[in-house]
Design brief:
mainly alpha; Hydantoin permease; 19 helices; binds phenylalanine
Length: 450
């Protein structure tokens, strides 16, 4: 065993690991991105494709990625090198880890900007700005924020600073503790909001929009987006789960943990969707209004419900915390790599990588105002392009290669040892991971290129 493997940190319990992984998975992807891309892609049919992607692609890759991390016990490039050596495969597999680290940095560069919106809204909510707010007021509140690069810069910097400070302290003491109360609290607030939504006139229409599939609204690109989002929301394909897996003890069941992560993540997204679309339809708003959806709907609910000031502040506070626990996990693979591969002290690595990511984030800020007419891919702004490149290309590609490695290259004995499944379940899992997952990802890719 190498020195790095010996000094690798470990989660204190199986529950601590599951919570940290849920903390990574549940974030802006669930509360902000899922509702708005569902709105843009027509609702029910998109949700159905998304759920199928979680089950047939997301869950198997999640299991494979955590297992590979636990076996390799390093940062993603190191883990891949070790596993490739053990399996007699090409050395080049370490590049899969590099693809992941790059994707993580690119995602984080816009993630902190959006989390910054959450922070701005938290402060606004505490100051009572949302009291009695109507749909029009909420829309202009949001455009005012987008039109102010200085404010966006301020909050982007604050979130990045938070991320750097927490990650410097190491994974275990900081993340484990924070998450054990944050996630339950987020769940409680979501249930309260669901209760509020239930009594709004738009509730039935919201359910119909989300759960009655109309396949005529589905395009090739929507399927690609649904698949990309399955990777994004489960934090897979880029090494986060690999590095979290590296800290998992041999005693724990990776399969059980993965099922928990996938189920909780999906529930949070669906509840967020139900709540947001109830408010959308009650107030005659546009479901396809894009990235601002969450921020233009919830203030209306909080402005009108009893105790809205309290719940609004709590909700946006939790959005920030949920985003933070994901942000940390986005930077961890690279920080861990600097630490274990290049012996750079953790704090220094966190500042270095965080600083670089902060710089890239400036382009995302500009893409909402001064550079909103600059397009990179097709008609996509800088933010839109980075989001597309990472979620729809880099993560699925990373996940596809992970499925191929785990399914086809790693020895049967190693796979069986990591999974500890009975013969039948193992056979089913292998079949899905070796055939269904890679074929599905490839079909979606190829049909989009054509
Ligand atoms: N899963 C996180 C979310 O849904 C985002 C994320 C992606 C985090 C990839 C880590 C790695 O918000």
């Amino acid at each position: 065993m190498t020195k790095a493997a010996l000094s690798s940190p470990t989660w204190s319990t199986q529950t601590a690991f599951i919570l940290a992984a849920i903390g990574s998975a549940v974030g802006l992807g669930n509360l902000w991105k899922f509702p708005y891309i569902t709105g843009e892609n027509g609702g029910g049919a998109f949700v159905l494709v998304y759920l199928a992607c979680i089950l047939l692609i997301g869950l198997p890759v999640l299991i494979a990625e955590i297992s590979m991390g636990r076996r390799g016990r390093g940062s993603p490039p190191e883990t891949m090198s070790r596993l490739a050596k053990e399996s007699g495969a090409s050395k080049l597999w370490w590049l899969l880890g590099v693809n992941g680290m790059l994707a993580g940095i690119l995602i984080l560069s816009f993630y902190t900007v959006i989390a910054g919106w959450g922070m701005a809204y938290f402060v606004d909510s505490v100051s009572g700005d949302f009291i009695d707010m109507d749909a029009k007021g909420a829309a202009s509140h949001f455009s005012a924020l987008m039109g102010s690069p200085e404010t966006l810069l301020l909050w982007h910097s604050v979130v990045m600073l938070f991320t750097i400070v927490v990650i410097s302290k190491g994974v275990k003491s900081g993340i484990e503790k924070a998450i054990s109360f944050m996630m339950p609290a987020l769940f409680v607030v979501l249930i309260v909001l669901l209760g509020y939504a239930f009594f709004t006139p738009g509730f039935g229409q919201s359910l119909a929009f989300l759960f009655e599939p109309d396949f005529s609204k589905l395009t090739g690109e929507s399927v690609l987006i649904a698949m990309g989002h399955a990777f994004f929301t489960l934090s897979i394909g880029m090494g986060t789960m690999m590095v979290y897996g590296a800290y998992v003890s041999e005693k724990y069941s990776v399969v059980k943990a993965s099922i928990w992560i996938a189920v909780v993540d999906t529930l949070v997204a669906l509840i967020a969707g139900i709540v947001i679309f109830s408010i959308v339809f009650t107030n005659g708003l546009e479901p396809g209004s894009g990235p601002g959806l969450l921020f233009q709907t919830l203030p209306v609910a909080f402005g009108q419900m009893t105790g809205g000031w309290f719940f609004g502040s709590l909700f946006f506070g939790l959005v920030v915390l949920a985003a933070l626990s994901s942000a940390i996990s986005l930077i961890e693979p690279t920080v861990r790599w600097c630490e274990s591969r290049w012996s750079i002290p953790r704090t220094k690595a966190a500042w270095l990588i965080g600083g670089l990511t902060w710089l890239i984030g400036l382009a995302t800020i500009a893409s909402f105002n001064i550079a909103s007419n600059i397009h990179l891919f097709g008609d996509k702004t800088f933010f839109g392009s980075i989001d597309f490149l990472t979620a729809n290309i880099m993560l699925p590609l990373g996940g596809l290669l992970m499925a191929v490695f785990f399914g086809w290259i790693m020895s049967k004995e190693s796979v069986q040892k990591e999974l500890g499944l009975s013969v039948y379940w193992l056979r089913l899992f292998n079949w899905v991971l070796k055939f269904v997952t890679p074929v599905a990802v490839s079909i979606v890719f190829v049909s989009n290129i054509i």
